[in-house]
Specification:
Rossmann fold; alpha/beta; 49% helix
Length: 138
Amino acid sequence: MKAVVDTNVLISALLKDGTPERALIKLITATEWQWVVSNEILQEYFGVMARPKFGFSDHLLQSWQELLKQSVIIIEVTTTIDFPRDRKDAKFLACMIAANADLLLTGDSDFSEAQALVRGNIVTPQRWLELNQQLEQE
């Protein structure tokens, strides 16, 4: 199964221990899941992580950049999608379509209007962890 991760989930995981971090650890360590990104998304991850307002240390940035390089699968995205609600987020939907992804992890409510545009599920990290827990208990 394939998942795309919105930048806000990654930044939330870096800022504090909690649900987004647990979701990313689960995604990285679960053998049945692949974290897919486009080059555009990966560059956004690196650019947003490096913003001075977050105050991440060089060591932390380098560690996460290496982790991402080792953990994600970069795919080529030639699909474009019109998502007027938030045009800068269209790249995540296009990546989902190109990868035929099963999941978009996001904390951004703007994506609630996008569910009809993709076949995979758009869920929060909290909801995804709950669904995983339910499946593991069955």
